[in-house]
Amino acid sequence: MALAPDRLDRFARQIILPEIGGAGQVALANAHVALVGLGGIGSPALQYLAGAGVGRFTLIDDDGVSASNLQRQMLYGEGDVGAPKRAKAAAWLREFDRQLEVETFGEHVDAGSAGRAIAGADLVLDGTDNFATRLAVSDACVAAGIPLLSAAVARFQGQVAAFAGHRAEEPCYRCFVGDAFDADDCDTCAENGILGAMAGWVGSFAAMQAIRVLLDGHAGFGDPQWGRLHILDGIVPGMKTIRIAKDPDCRVCG
User: Fold this and answer.
1) For residue 188, pLDDT beyond 60
2) Phi, psi at residue 25, to the nearest 5°?
3) What is the pLDDT of residues 203-254, one digit of tens each?
4) What is the 8-class DSSP label of residue 144?
5) 206, 158 in Cβ contact below 8 A?
6) Distances (CA, A) of 142 to 28, 124, 130
7) What local confidence, expressed as pLDDT, does residue 179 receive?
8) Of the candidates 150, 171, 147, 167, which has an alpha carbon nearest to the alpha carbon of residue 159?
9) 250 belongs to the catalytic site
10) What is the CA angle 154-159-164, rounded to 5?
11) With contact defined as beta carbons under 8 Å apart, do 244 and 171 qualify?
């Protein structure tokens, strides 16, 4: 697929990067990303992925905008309080770039619905705030053979990692956290607190890592970094990376 002249102009600053180029830009235009959660991580990730030229999105969220979201979820304003996040995010996308394809999924994501929510995606980016949803999404990704980019943030720390548990040699998210968190009972931002700028850092870094996954095999920037967990520290600014091993006894991908 060749890019139209107006698209070449829009993405010129990106196309001239030798690590991306025209082939990489076409790959992004053909990509379909499913975002699970449109909150503190999903908001900036969506904006930067749309800005990068990802051509199709599935927006997955069953929550509404609340006043407490506005401190870190820059997709929304005071007039959006009470409205479904997925509807407001879709409206933002259509206003930002009318050529993008967008669909929404408003059911609660669990083991029964996760597969339908992410169907057809080239990559799933999960920015939700509970382990039960994350594990359901991860299991669905393994079953469907879809890569997962997982991002989390609390207080002044963030974590971002790419998983490809459907591959024989790579771990899934369940290999990382185990089975103990299947219950929907973990702490959230309401209990732990969060700095809004920290969520923005994690969300934008997650978008960078998502672009790496999408460009794998298409451009020099393509490096999925499967199973590498990047830990972002906002107190003493820095980042460290650790390797997650595949669990041979994992009940989903082992």
Assistant:
1) no
2) -65, -40
3) 999 999 999 999 999 999 999 999 999 999 999 999 999 999 999 999 999 9
4) H
5) no
6) 22, 11, 19
7) 84
8) 150
9) no
10) 140
11) yes
- DSSP letter string over 90-129? HHHHHHH-TT-EEEEE-SPPSTTTHHHHHTT-SEEEE--S
Q: Coil, helix or strand for 187? A: coil
Structure tokens at 24: 């990489």
- Nearest 5 degrees, angle CA 203-CA 208-CA 210? 90
Alpha helices in 40-84 (DSSP H): 42-52
pLDDT exceeds cutoff 80 at 182: no
Give 76-85's long-range contacts (Cβ < 8 A, gap of 24+): 76/43, 85/38, 85/39, 85/61
Does the pTM surpass 0.85? The reply is yes
β pairing state of 56-60 and 32-36: parallel
Host H or E run for residue 173 = helix 173-177
Note the pLDDT of residue 113: 98
Of 147, 104, 124, 120, the closest CA to residue 34 belongs to 124
Q: How do strand 228-233 and strand 101-105 relate by DSSP bridges?
A: unpaired
Secondary structure E strands in the chain: 32-36, 56-60, 101-105, 123-126, 148-154, 157-163, 228-233, 238-243
Q: Specify the amino acid at residue 119.
A: A
| pLDDT above 80 (res 184) | no
Q: Which of 141, 189, 250, 253 is catalytic?
A: 189
Rounded Cα distance between 194 and 156, Å, is 7
CA-angle at 20, arms to 89 and 204, nearest 5°: 35
